[in-house]
Amino acid sequence: MAHGAHHSPLPPHPDLSLARDCEHCLGWGTVVTFDGRHELCPTCQPETGDGEATTDTAAP
Predict the structure, then answer these.
(1) What is residue 5's predicted lDDT score, i.e. its pLDDT?
(2) pTM of the full structure
(3) pLDDT digits over 3-38, tens only?
(4) Cα distance between residue 19 and residue 2, in whole Å
(5) How far apart are CA 3 and CA 20, in angstroms?
(6) Which of 40, 44, 45, 59 is the right S-S partner for 22, CB 3.0 to 4.6 Å?
(7) Which residues are 47's β-sheet partners?
């Protein structure tokens, strides 16, 4: 069985501009799983391979 990254005690940092009109997370950008962990909303938060929300902050 493959194991993912260790879970951080801090909730993930969502992009709130993407979450603003999301009906799944009600604008929070995160959801609480059945086991009580906070995760990025799968509906409004695009993910990269490391589990963080994508933010394009690189200068052109």
Answers:
(1) 57
(2) 0.59
(3) 555 566 666 789 999 999 999 999 999 999 999 898
(4) 30
(5) 32
(6) 44
(7) 53
